[in-house]
Amino acid sequence: MRYIHSVLHKALETAVNLDMIPRNPADKVHPPSPEDTEITPLTEEQIARFLDAAKGNRFEALFVTVLGTGLRRGEVLGLRWEDIDLQNGLLTVQRTIETAKGKLQFVPPKTKTSKRTISLPPSVVEALKKHRIQQMQHKLRLGPMYQDQGMVFPSETGTPLKKQGYRIFAFMT
Questions:
Q1: Nearest-5° angle of CA 112, CA 59, CA 113?
Q2: What is the Cα–Cα distance from 18 to 129, expressed in whole angstroms?
Q3: Burial letters for 15-24: b for 16+ Cβ neighbours within 10 Å, e otherwise?
Q4: pLDDT attached to residue 173
Q5: pLDDT score recorded for residue 34
Q6: CATH of span 44-172
Q7: CA-CA distances (angstroms) from residue 135 to 34, 129, 141, 149?
Q8: d(CA 3, CA 131)
Q9: Which of 49, 93, 113, 141 is most buried as measured by Cβ atoms within 10 A of its Cβ?
């Protein structure tokens, strides 16, 4: 409803600017406030079923990492291998990825508390180790077509993944 109001208001504002109508009637209408939706976390059984279904999927390690750490989409997609210490089981959130004017950019986390170091559960460490090996093998197969940017969860060609347009993130919204 808020989006529809915004589009309609903009269209009517254009009509005012073109002298098609004397005033914008949408100025007098306030869009409804968004409803607070309560987040219902997955149960342990649902997580187990989800991860079982994800076995062998290209994004299996991403799913394990998100579910094991609670990272946000932009945080997990902004991860570089330099942010992960597999030896000590630590992950540092130093950046997030966002789209501005159609271009991907890395930005610092929005708050001081968002920039943090997380202890990784053993299952995440193992998934990331396996993922790293698979990623290096894929990089060798692609050769110069692979644009290595040090991303933990890159696109097929090594570039950052866009968080919009990937159905893999439907479970994170």
A1: 5
A2: 60
A3: eeeeeeeeeb
A4: 47
A5: 78
A6: 1.10.443.10
A7: 41, 10, 10, 12
A8: 39
A9: 93
Q: Say if CB 62 and CB 76 are below 8 A apart.
A: yes
Beta bridge mates, 92: 117
| Dist. CA 30–CA 23, nearest whole Å | 16
d(CA 31, CA 59): 38
Span 106-152, pLDDT tens digits: 999 988 889 999 999 999 999 999 999 999 999 999 999 999 999 99
Q: Is 60 exposed, middle or buried (0-12, 13-18, 19+ CB in 10 A)?
A: middle
Q: How many CB atoms lie within 10 A of CB 89?
A: 15
Report pTM: 0.74
Q: Which two tokens stand for residue 137?
A: 């093998």
Burial of 139 (0-12, 13-18, 19+ CB in 10 A): middle
* Per-domain boundaries in the chain: 1-37, 44-172
- Alpha-carbon gap, residue 158 to 114, rounded angstroms: 26
Asked whether the CA dihedral 125, 66, 84, 93 is positive or negative, the reply is negative
> In the Cβ-directed half-sphere of 2, how many Cα atoms lie within 13 Å?
4
- Residues 76, 151: Cα–Cα separation, whole Å: 10
